[in-house]
């Protein structure tokens, strides 16, 4: 087991908001406990790629900072390859790579290659291996043409590519990636995703990924853990999540008619000109049945079926539309289930 998290919590004392004159507030401050991460537990095995998802303020970044040893937990335990991150930061840093969104680990005023060289010495990467890695990064994320530019002069996309390369210079066993494809064009995103898949397959690198890019989730993640208000509300296989929460499909039909459109066992969600958006539950009916019913009354010219989008499925879970339950496949759903 690579990562073990047991009953992990992080809370802060924050000043309570009071509707009183400032001189009264200063004389007697009142505090309350803010639970950013609240008693969560999960495991990540060697070679897994796990999407750690949640809305802004859910506790994702705080969890990652505890896993990387930046923050000390208020309660609970973390073991990463047998190491307690905050107690042995030096040894822990040798086995992990980290990309924290737009917070660069590179030196702002130095050329990118100088930052890479500093990291090479810090991690004691052999020179031959270092050159091999530079060639690889040039092929994968095209860092070669801006190696001599200072970090402050890079675009967001260039900084992300440079940070991604920097996080992998020392061949880490575990990668923590926070929005790794932000600011990248479609081609660069695809290259990054392919490279993550390659190092995962060939070197069994374990990856924990936080992202709002649905393409990242679908292309990379074997499993998703969703956190909201500091608690895990879902922990399970991505395919199971899609099948369990993605019951609804949308059938877009091009109909020639001046009559009101009625559909049995389905509902009309939108109409634009001759196009009608029909939402249906795939457990109740299917597109063939709907189209067969429609052509008896209307002139159907064309139709397409839209599959459910991951972000919409996740939104359903965020909104708490489904009751707490657990099934035999180890999927946990519902606030407070960890």
In words, what does this structure look like?
With 338 residues, this protein is α/β, with parallel strands linked by helices. The protein has two domains: 3-242, 3-Layer(aba) Sandwich (Rossmann fold), CATH 3.40.50; 248-307, no CATH class. It is built from eleven helices and 15 strands. The strands form three sheets. An eight-stranded mixed beta sheet has the order 5-6-7-3-8-9-15-14, sandwiched between helices. The protein has a four-stranded antiparallel beta sheet with strand order 11-12-10-13, with helices on one face. Strand 11 and strand 12 (275-281) form a beta hairpin. It starts with a strand and ends in a 5-residue tail after the last strand.
| CATH topology label of the largest domain | Rossmann fold
Which band does the percent of strand residues land in? Answer: 25-35%
Distance between the termini: 18 Å
N-to-C series of helices and strands: EHEEHEHEHHHEHEHEEHEEEHEHEE
Level of helix content?
25-40%
The structure class reads alpha/beta
Note the overall shape: globular
| pLDDT < 50 stretches | 321-338
CATH homologous superfamily descriptor of the largest domain: P-loop containing nucleotide triphosphate hydrolases
**Per CATH, which architecture of the largest domain?**
3-Layer(aba) Sandwich
CATH first level of the largest domain:
Alpha Beta
